[in-house]
Design brief:
The complex is a heterotrimer of chains A (56), B (218) and C (250). Chain A has 56 residues and is mainly α. Chain A has a domain of 33 residues. Chain A is 84% helix and 0% strand. Chain B has 218 residues and is mostly helical. Chain C is mostly helical and 250 residues long. Chain C has a domain of 158 residues. Chain C is 78% helix and 0% strand. Classes of the chains: A mainly alpha (56), B mainly alpha (218), C mainly alpha (250). Chains in contact: A-C, B-C. At the A-C interface, helix 1 of A face helix 1, helix 2, helix 3 and helix 7 of C.
Chain lengths: 56, 218, 250
């Protein structure tokens, strides 16, 4: 049910494609870095906690 | 203040100060323009005002990273920061010294380079006027960029990335004056706007530069 | 209960964690609904044909490109005046989002301009000022990543943001002076009044409602991204601090 885009089909579809790819990239990079940092943080806090328990 | 200005000028005149470097760069860029677009003098005449302005702007940019870096390395800036002279005046003097050693010589040789690009006769006056009014703004804005990047080891490239967008309004009005002047159009409106930019940045930007420099010196 | 409570990183993290899913889902829903509505259920424009559908991406991204810079400006001011770290990190988190929005606006504009004006790029005032805005974003991001010490970086980038804002506005007027251009004026908000008097320049209601949904979606997406990225920055900073303390103790 793609609507009839007439002679501008390529124009419209490519701009939608390009924008959605850029948005998806932005979200993906954001989430990827966020996950990584969150995991690092959890690991570090775990390590510090066990260390504190051992020393304490 | 005067002592600081004289000191800066003397340092720039010395061999290591890169005094002639900006001029040589300006000359080379101007020589390269005909090589890149072709030797037709009609074409050269149309792009001469803009080409000369761009060349002068890049020549200004070239010497910016030495503006504060040398004083930063040998600790002079720390001394200046604790001196009774406010840092705002220091950066203004620095910008003035930069303009006297880089901007002013560029203004003076610009007509000679205009000949190389077959600039139309009415253009010379406007070219010199526009550069004379516009280049101080380039020095002041450049001082802000130099203050931002002074603490960085490889600040040169970053400095250009930061400063070039800030040069846009000055370049637009400056080149507009030169272009209108060269084609015999009325050029006082952009000239006034250019003068407005120069006056505005000279009055306000030293505060930002000094603030940034204080952060970097902390 | 005041707004400044959220300047506490811990408080910010717990609250943002709680509201983030709402923003993600709402923004996703708005963008999907708005784009589907716009793409499938709006007629072609009598002059522009189907290219008018690009408006649902072009206008919201352009809007957010400018608003992101405004948000960075406000956040920088808050950092300079009240020294809340969250504020500085939020400004840092917003910059790449704003830069991406600028790219989307430029790319969709170029693709749209090709059939309409017969050229991908013209040195039109609006296009040119967006390109300059993009350069400002690049410089800002580069300065952040170049400086080691986070507080120094926050100070310097904040001042750059202030100075950059002034120069961005100056450039906008300078560019206007320099070339009059092809781009139509910002007609969305005038249509936003929905007065019913349908003059030619306005975006008519049929296009306006899905466009509104898209704009809301983009705003929400921007908020979600910035909240999430700010959380990331706060954690990254805390990791650095903890590691430094660990090294000191060892």
């Amino acid at each position: 049910m793609i609507p009839d885009l007439g002679k501008y089909a390529v124009t419209v579809l490519s701009s939608y494609g390009a924008s959605l790819v850029l948005l998806a990239l932005l979200v993906a990079v954001t989430l990827w870095r966020g996950r990584k940092v969150r995991a690092d943080m959890a690991e570090l806090e775990n390590r510090l906690k066990t260390k504190a328990n051992r020393d304490g | 203040m005067k002592a600081l200005l004289i000191r800066d000028l003397k340092l720039a005149m010395r061999a290591g100060g890169g005094f002639g470097l900006g001029l040589a760069f300006f000359l080379i860029v101007t020589v390269l323009i005909p090589f890149s677009v072709g030797p037709q003098s009609a074409l050269l005449a149309t792009i001469a005002p803009g080409g000369l302005w761009l060349g002068a702007l890049l020549a200004c940019l070239l010497s910016l990273d030495r503006l504060l870096a040398l004083d930063w390395e040998d600790g002079t800036l720390d001394l200046l920061a604790t001196a009774p002279l406010p840092l705002e005046s220091v950066v203004t003097i620095k910008a003035l010294a930069h303009w006297l050693t880089t901007g002013l010589p560029l203004v003076l040789i610009a007509p000679a380079l205009g000949v190389l690009l077959s600039l139309p006769a009415p253009g010379y006056f406007w070219l010199v006027i526009s550069l004379l009014v516009g280049t101080p703004a380039l020095s002041v804005i450049g001082t802000f960029g130099a203050a931002l990047t002074v603490g960085l080891k490889r600040g040169g490239l970053l400095l250009s990335l930061l400063v070039l967008p800030l040069y846009v309004p000055t370049l637009i009005f400056g080149a507009e004056v030169a272009r209108r002047g060269a084609t015999g159009m009325e050029a006082t409106t952009p000239l006034l706007l250019l003068a407005g930019i120069t006056a505005g940045v000279t009055a306000l930007l030293p505060f930002a530069s000094a603030a940034v420099l204080r952060v970097n010196l902390r | 209960m005041s707004l400044w409570e959220y300047a506490n990183p811990k408080k910010f993290l717990t609250t943002s964690e709680r509201v983030l899913p709402v923003f993600w889902w709402l923004s996703g829903a708005c963008i999907v609904i708005g784009l589907i509505w716009g793409f499938f259920f709006t007629p072609d424009d009598y002059r522009q044909g189907s290219t008018v559908k690009i408006i649902y991406l072009h206008v919201p991204s352009a809007l957010m490109a400018i608003n992101a810079w405004l948000m960075m400006l406000v956040a920088s001011l808050i950092w300079l005046i009240r020294r809340h770290h969250v504020s500085a990190l939020a400004a840092r988190a917003a910059a790449p989002v704003g830069a991406t929005m600028t790219v989307i606006a430029l790319v969709t504009g170029a693709i749209w301009g090709q059939p309409m004006w017969g050229t991908w790029w013209a040195w039109d005032p609006r296009l040119t000022s967006f390109l300059i805005l993009f350069l400002f974003y690049l410089g800002y991001i580069a300065l952040w990543s170049a400086i080691e010490d986070p507080d120094t970086a926050a100070d310097l980038t904040s001042v750059l943001c202030l100075v950059g804002s002034v120069f961005a506005i100056l450039s906008r007027y300078a560019v206007n002076f320099w070339n009059q251009g092809l781009h139509q004026g910002a007609s969305v908000m005038r249509a936003g009044a929905i007065t019913g008097t349908d003059t030619e320049e306005k975006v008519s209601n049929i296009f306006f409602f899905p466009l509104m949904v898209c704009m809301v979606g983009f705003v929400l997406l921007f908020i979600a991204l910035v909240l999430y990225r700010t959380g990331t920055e706060i954690r990254a900073r805390r990791i650095r601090a903890l590691m430094a303390r660990e090294r000191m103790a060892a």
